[in-house]
Amino acid sequence: MGTYVPDRILSNHDLEKMVDTSDEWIIQRTGIKERRIAADDQFTSDLAVLAVKNLIKNYSVSVEDVDFILVSTTTPDTPLPSVASQLQHRLGIQSCGSLDISAACAGFVMGLNLANGLVTSGLHRKILVVGSETLSKVTDFKDRTTCILFGDGAGAALVERDDNHASFIHSVSTTEGRAGVHLYRSGLANTLEQTELAGAGNIIQNGREVFKLAVSTMVREIPKLLEQAGFSQADLDWFVPHSANIRIIEAACDRLKFPMEKVLFSAEYFGNTSSATIPLALQLGIEQGKIKTGDTLLLSGFGGGFVHSSTLIRWNI
Ligand code: ACO
């Protein structure tokens, strides 16, 4: 793992000066205290490169022989070329496949699951999976219902074959396309039917619907995944759900009867960083000495689409 967040901190008190809100309201409704904001000249690929460089530093690994790059982002520098292709060039990787994943906040876990499939099938050997976002660039800082939620950040993982230490145990991914209208980026309509969704490119959401979808998806899918894998909730050392909002996680854990003490959450100091919340939560878990070698972790991403991807892993690092 390697992560990166920009230096600039935007606190709830800063937001009080920008919109009609309060530190107390934001903490009570979301669990977020502050978030990081990229510099004007800092884009998603810049954050991604720095996350990979930190990964290289943390584990003294090389990425020169990486043969595929998967980048999950909802905020690419531009729709074309992909962020993944820019990483190939900027990291000096000689020859590899590259692909951006559009799966919103589920994208990092989706990427891990795809990487596992590509490696176990023998098609590829060493894959970089990156979640990187500059959500501040598509946030309307006059809209108090969304600007309090989002932040910028990136996380990277290296997935490679090791026949003696299997990390991936089981995974599941789901999609409820009918619910796409509840959370989207405006301004990118390509069909007549979508023109009503057109706008300035910012994130638009129906917060209550997103809340309900997130909770119901986790409550429905997690017991199924565990049962298919022959595991129970008691076998989990850590649950790492997408850190959108502490109340979503509390509501899901309450219904699943899962203890909040075993949850890793990154939004308190980074806000909702979409694809990056799960790697940022893992990094916090590592730095705080919570995650130990041999631990069993359940990562669960969910987001606009409405898409979801969960994976059960053994932490072999
Ligand atoms: N500060 C103060 N008051 C606010 C703010 C704010 N920032 N935003 C809204 N309000 C007001 C509303 O205007 C409303 O006032 P009214 O009663 O006078 O009309 C009141 O607070 C309640 O508004 P609700 O929208 O009902 O508030 P709710 O309790 O639903 O909380 C929130 C809003 C935090 C967005 C909640 O719906 C939520 O957590 N939704 C999930 C959305 C989410 O996390 N999205 C992230 C992206 S999606 C993803 O990552 C999967």
UniProtKB/TrEMBL annotation:
<comment type="similarity">
    <text>Belongs to the thiolase-like superfamily. FabH family.</text>
</comment>
<protein>
    <recommendedName>
        <fullName>Beta-ketoacyl-[acyl-carrier-protein] synthase III</fullName>
        <ecNumber>2.3.1.180</ecNumber>
    </recommendedName>
</protein>
<keyword id="KW-0443">Lipid metabolism</keyword>
<comment type="subunit">
    <text>Homodimer.</text>
</comment>
<dbReference type="Pfam" id="PF08541">
    <property type="entry name" value="ACP_syn_III_C"/>
</dbReference>
<comment type="function">
    <text>Catalyzes the condensation reaction of fatty acid synthesis by the addition to an acyl acceptor of two carbons from malonyl-ACP. Catalyzes the first condensation reaction which initiates fatty acid synthesis and may therefore play a role in governing the total rate of fatty acid production. Possesses both acetoacetyl-ACP synthase and acetyl transacylase activities. Its substrate specificity determines the biosynthesis of branched-chain and/or straight-chain of fatty acids.</text>
</comment>
<dbReference type="InterPro" id="IPR016039">
    <property type="entry name" value="Thiolase-like"/>
</dbReference>
<feature type="active site">
    <location>
        <position position="272"/>
    </location>
</feature>
<dbReference type="GO" id="GO:0044550">
    <property type="term" value="P:secondary metabolite biosynthetic process"/>
</dbReference>
<dbReference type="InterPro" id="IPR004655">
    <property type="entry name" value="FabH"/>
</dbReference>
<dbReference type="InterPro" id="IPR013747">
    <property type="entry name" value="ACP_syn_III_C"/>
</dbReference>
<comment type="pathway">
    <text>Lipid metabolism; fatty acid biosynthesis.</text>
</comment>
<dbReference type="GO" id="GO:0005737">
    <property type="term" value="C:cytoplasm"/>
</dbReference>
<dbReference type="GO" id="GO:0006633">
    <property type="term" value="P:fatty acid biosynthetic process"/>
</dbReference>
<keyword id="KW-0511">Multifunctional enzyme</keyword>
<feature type="active site">
    <location>
        <position position="242"/>
    </location>
</feature>
<feature type="active site">
    <location>
        <position position="105"/>
    </location>
</feature>
<keyword id="KW-0012">Acyltransferase</keyword>
<keyword id="KW-0276">Fatty acid metabolism</keyword>
<keyword id="KW-0444">Lipid biosynthesis</keyword>
<feature type="domain" description="Beta-ketoacyl-[acyl-carrier-protein] synthase III N-terminal">
    <location>
        <begin position="99"/>
        <end position="177"/>
    </location>
</feature>
<feature type="region of interest" description="ACP-binding">
    <location>
        <begin position="243"/>
        <end position="247"/>
    </location>
</feature>
<dbReference type="InterPro" id="IPR013751">
    <property type="entry name" value="ACP_syn_III_N"/>
</dbReference>
<dbReference type="Pfam" id="PF08545">
    <property type="entry name" value="ACP_syn_III"/>
</dbReference>
<keyword id="KW-0963">Cytoplasm</keyword>
<keyword id="KW-0275">Fatty acid biosynthesis</keyword>
<feature type="domain" description="Beta-ketoacyl-[acyl-carrier-protein] synthase III C-terminal">
    <location>
        <begin position="226"/>
        <end position="315"/>
    </location>
</feature>
<dbReference type="GO" id="GO:0033818">
    <property type="term" value="F:beta-ketoacyl-acyl-carrier-protein synthase III activity"/>
</dbReference>
<dbReference type="GO" id="GO:0004315">
    <property type="term" value="F:3-oxoacyl-[acyl-carrier-protein] synthase activity"/>
</dbReference>
<keyword id="KW-0808">Transferase</keyword>
